[in-house]
Amino acid sequence: MATVPSSATASKTGSTRNYTLAFALVTSLFFLWAFVHNLEPILIPHLKKACQLTDLQSALIDSAVYLGYFLMALPAGYVMKKYGYQRGIIAGLVMYAAGAFLFVPAADTRMYGFFLGALFIIASGCAFLETAANPYVTILGNPSTATTRLNFSQSFNGLGAFLAPVVGGRVILSGIEHSDAELAAMSSEQLNSYLQYEADQVKMPYIIIGVVVVAVAALFMFTKLPDISESEKKAPSTLGSVWRHRHLRWGVIAQFFYVGAQVCVTSFFIRFAKFSSDVPEKTAAEWLGWAMLGFLIGRFIGTYLSRFIAANRLLTIYSLISAGLLAVAMTMQSQVAVWAIFAVPFFESIMFATIFSLGISRLEEDTELGSSLLVMAIAGGALFPVLMGYISDQSNIKIAYIIPLLCFLVVAYYGWKGYKVQSDELRVKS
Predict the structure, then answer these.
(1) CA 35 to chain centre
(2) Which among 7, 60, 77, 396 would be 20 to 30 A from 384, CA to CA?
(3) How big is the CA angle at 227 (ends 221 and 233), to the nearest 5 degrees?
(4) Distance (Å, rounded) from C-alpha 157 to C-alpha 176?
């Protein structure tokens, strides 16, 4: 990933410069990528209907997105290093908008592969945005308030995660839920008309998203952002030298399983609510939005609790609670099962950042490459939903939630033992 610039360097380029506009523009990126990613749990049941998919096939939506991140994370970092943050951001926004506009021909043809390609392009653009935005925010202003600025920007990520399911559920989901018998009774013309109507529901929302992203890209093109040069270069680490850190290895594994669990829990929530309690899709989408608001609130509460509870211990506690809630969801037959899954995002809220910080602890010169490996570990979001979809097709969606349950147990182990820095590693460094 791109080297994080020094705040001191930013100060040298003009300590009295007003960074307000630049900060506002970069902060908007946090909302943009969170909003589009949290439309995925809406797209999964929607395209399952419109393209007549199995649960396994619908889970490829997550695979397309997280493979985009996995494949583009390092290239994005190289682009930032060579051409700068502003050009990297513009490139990311252009890809994002292009992918959004491709939803129109994808809907016209009703080709599922076309939708997956469009999502891959959007995710590739978002990989550029995330690579740039986090470090850039930290150096837009006084170094002493860098953490405050980043936390403020991250709050817009939570806002996007909350709004996307609520808005998407209302404008994309039609609320028409035919049974298999009703679909079989339709003539070919009636069936085709219905499926095309469902597919067309995504056109206008994604056109609007594309137009908004183009407008933001234009603002970045015509706004002079502060030039932030990178601080002193260090000798690059090698994969072998970084991988010797046991706590980092376990951190990459834990992050892989955590992201997989997070994606599984939300992606199949609407499907689970319908199966277990016959909750209408639009209602379930709204509930998911409120669950993601719980995710945002959980960040603040978790940050407060971390003042009194060690980060690794809090991670273990939250992981075990999440696994317990999923066990309840798998065994209960009433709406209690839905509410159990509804509560999980609250406890997920601290996991990514906690695993990340524990994983790069005391890496010193290996920190940058270690950080890249932890970011690339989000590829878990490409694998586990597919496994969950396969299990659902072979049995049912309730049983399929065994996948995220097991993932949370791996995360719990990391918080219990896997996070520990080995004494032999410390001796090597000394």
Answers:
(1) 10
(2) 77
(3) 130
(4) 31
Q: Which two tokens stand for residue 264?
A: 């599984």
Rounded CA-CA distance 306/220 in Å is 37
Terminal-residue alpha carbon distance, the chain: 27
List helix spans (H) across 244-360: 246-267, 269-277, 281-305, 311-331, 335-348, 351-359
- The sign of the CA dihedral 341, 342, 343, 348 is positive
Residue 225 token pair:
């952002």
Instruction: Please name which of 90, 91, 100, 98 lies closest in space to residue 35, comparing C-alpha atoms.
Output: 100
Q: Specify the pTM.
A: 0.80
What does the alpha-carbon distance between residue 346 and residue 249 come to, in Å, rounded to a whole number? 26
Per DSSP, the three-state class of 9 is: helix
Say how far apart CA 268 and CA 44 lie, in whole Å. 8
Cβ partners under 8 Å of residue 116, min gap 6: 60, 61, 64
Give the pLDDT confidence of 210-268 residue by residue, as tens digits. Answer: 999 999 999 999 888 776 554 444 555 566 667 777 888 899 999 999 999 999 999 99
**DSSP code of residue 111:** -
Count CA within 13 A, CB hemisphere, residue 203: 13
SS3 of residue 175 by DSSP:
coil
Q: Is the dihedral of CA 382, 388, 393, 396 positive or negative?
A: negative
Backbone phi, psi, residue 38, to 5°: -85, 5
Question: Computed from CA positions of residues 319, 324, 325, 327, in that sequence, does the dihedral angle turn out positive or negative?
Answer: positive
pLDDT digits (tens, 9 = 90+) for 276-327: 888 998 899 999 999 999 988 988 888 788 888 888 899 999 999 999 999 9
In this structure, what DSSP letter does residue 140 have?
S
Cβ of 165: how many Cβ atoms within 10 Å? 28
Query: Which residue is listed with tokens 């309730």?
Result: 398
Q: How many residues does the chain have?
A: 430
Q: Confirm if 407 and 257 have CB atoms less than 8 A apart.
A: yes
Tokens matching residue 265: 């829990």
